[in-house]
Recover the amino acids of this structure.
């Protein structure tokens, strides 16, 4: 049993695209930690692969074309960070690119799994932005 950290993205909205490399960097910080990290993409497997590029093979990736998992996590906008404890409860959640929220969530995860926390944000990361509200799949 491991903690699970997801970065949920909408492959049809430009703001999610702005965060792909930043999210990949943050997630891979935990590659050897006692947790699992993954992208959760609100699209099909093919759309997830096309949207994420190399990150779709570098990081575990889940496709959620009907947004069932994304909505089940209580998310209303994407991109988002969700940290699930071993019992499935949400330990932390951040919607939109809110670097202080993501940093606090990543620091909490690092403490829980006794790992080093990533630097959030880096100078090359996007400026903060609100998430894009979820829309029903076409």
């Amino acid at each position: 049993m491991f903690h699970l950290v997801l970065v949920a993205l909408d492959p049809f909205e430009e703001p999610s695209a702005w965060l792909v490399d930043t999210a990949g960097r943050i997630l891979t910080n935990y590659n050897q930690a006692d947790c699992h990290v993954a992208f959760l993409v609100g699209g099909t497997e093919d759309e997830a692969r096309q949207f994420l590029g190399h990150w779709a093979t570098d990081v575990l990736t889940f496709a959620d074309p009907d947004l069932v998992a994304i909505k089940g996590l209580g998310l209303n906008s994407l991109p988002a960070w969700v940290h699930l404890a071993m019992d499935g409860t949400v330990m932390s959640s951040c919607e939109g690119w809110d670097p202080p929220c993501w940093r606090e969530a990543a620091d909490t995860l690092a403490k829980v799994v006794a790992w080093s926390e990533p630097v959030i944000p880096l100078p090359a990361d996007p400026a903060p932005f609100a998430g894009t509200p979820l829309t029903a799949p076409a």
